[in-house]
Amino acid sequence: MSQSLTKTETPNQVDCLLIPLKDKNLLLPNVTVAEIIPFSHLLTTASSADWVLGRIDWRGTPVPVVCYEMLNQQPAPAPNPDARFAVVNGVGNHPDMPFFAILVQGIPRLVHLTEKDIQEVEAMKMGEFDMKAVSIDEGQAMIPDLDLLENKLLDYV
Residue 6 CB: number of other CB atoms within 10 A? Predict the structure, then answer.
């Protein structure tokens, strides 16, 4: 009698996080996010940008925190007891800022996607820092332009 192994992962599948914001979700590859941490006290910064909320001390590293909604010229979210920080791995390899954090409005969900699971949506209103609007089985989401976000943040921290 022969046994066959069943593969639980599809080739070219990417594990992603669907990250809740005020009025939309961000979609990020799981490897982009270092950790989701509870909302904690923000330390002040000398930044003149209102979308830079402050910084957190994460594992001994100062990490600037941004409000993605305000960065995209939208109103700030109301205080939320489910708020958290998504600590994001820097994409530009900047030694002074290896990480930054995004204020999120709930617990992100892990989704397993292949290229055919993602459909681009052109009718969604996009902000300057949204690279692409997409539709997946779990709903609609924005793929942020992390390079642009990180470069803009470097100008203010």
Answer: 5
- In b/e form, how buried is each residue of 67-80, taking b as 16+ CB within 10 angstroms? bbbbbbebeebeee
Domain containing 97 equals: 16-154
Residues 64, 80: Cα–Cα separation, whole Å? 20
Helices marked H in 14-84: 68-71
Q: What is the pTM of this model?
A: 0.88
Beta-bridge partners for 64: 55
CATH at residue 136: 2.40.50.180
- Domains held by the chain: number: 1
Could you tell me the pLDDT band of residue 4, with boundaries at 50, 70 and 90? very low
C-alpha to C-alpha distance for 15 and 13, rounded to whole angstroms: 7
- Quote the pLDDT of residue 11: 67
Q: Which residues contact 17 (CB under 8 A, 6 or more apart)?
A: 27, 28, 29, 30, 32, 33, 36, 86, 108, 109, 110, 111
